[in-house]
Amino acid sequence: MDPVTEPVTDPVTGPAGHRTGGRPPRAPAGQGLTTGAVARLLGVAPTTLRSWDRRYGIGPAAREDGRHRRWTGADIAALRHMCRLTGAGLPPAEAARAVLAGASRATAAPWRGHPSRAPGGLPLDSARRECRGLARAALRLDAPAMEELLTEVLDRYGLPAAWDEVMAPALHAVGRKWETAGERCVEVEHLLSWHVSGALRGVRAAGPPAPGASLSLLACVPGETHTLALEALAATLTRHGLPVRMFGAALPVEALEEAVRRTGPDAVVLWAQSHGTASPSLAARVEAIEWGVRGARRRPVVFTAGPGWAGRQPPGTRHPSGLADAVSALAALGAR
């Protein structure tokens, strides 16, 4: 079974018992599904389906009134085959030729290009269908499809569910692929990261911050360049109307200390992806910073976030278990 696609059982309703984020739509008797319904079923952008139809002839056998696409079970089976082949790195044109020729996956023409351009599948068997669709779009380097899918999951699930169940699993899978395949998958990781970052930065506050809302300062520790998890936290806090100052990657120690003194935050979140960048002494140094007038001086609550802090949490700091836990803890500081 391809790691980023599901097995073909019922080509209209999907595999029985497989998690797809909801019951797939059923077509009325004697009819087929619309392009939008098929896109939701397979986790593929509607624009991608239309492009495959227009460019390669992977489209519905019949059209309602000669114009509107209606996809039958056989049409969807062909699309599933197309998704499997493109998800395994086959160029869309070559995958379409294999599908139209009725070739099985085992006998389809292999990729003959340079190996760095043919990344294999990603380990996402049990992920949401939107996550698998995002992974397939990333492997195809299909930027429009990624944008459409990311917008859809943010609208449908909101933060942090979109991060925890779609974005992060896809990013982790691509990261693991990059670690095992070297440069073969780096372009996929970069493109996916760019689009996830753009989607997160597009999140807007539902309204102005509530009076007394806690201010959070977010920064990666020196030497740490992985920012996407912090961007997800910043976007979620923004959406909840909680003020945030996001300083991003590898903030130098002196700059971090100056930012804390100048903003007087209720909390400082320090992200470390690896043990090599996590610094207990830095966390203690930030926790000791004071500001305010004499007799009413304050200190920030320091949160150590990220896998780099596992097993080495500094005394007096907090270590949230995930995005939702971090947001709840930071929001609660406003009631102190």
Concise summary:
By secondary structure, this protein is an alpha/beta fold. The chain has helices spanning 35-42, 46-56, 73-87, 92-100, 129-139, 143-157, 161-181, 186-201, 228-239, 253-263, 280-287, 323-332, and strands at residues 62-64, 68-70, 216-220, 244-246, 267-271, 301-305. The chain contains 12 helices and 6 strands.
What does it look like?
This protein is α/β, with parallel strands linked by helices and 336 residues long. 44% of the residues lie in helices and 7% in strands. The protein is built from twelve helices and six strands. The strands form two sheets. It has a four-stranded parallel β-sheet with strand order 4-3-5-6, with helices on both faces. A two-stranded antiparallel sheet has the order 1-2. The termini are far apart. Residues 1-30 and 103-120 have low confidence and may be disordered.
What distinguishing features does this structure have?
336 residues; alpha/beta; two-stranded antiparallel ribbon; 12 helices; disordered N terminus
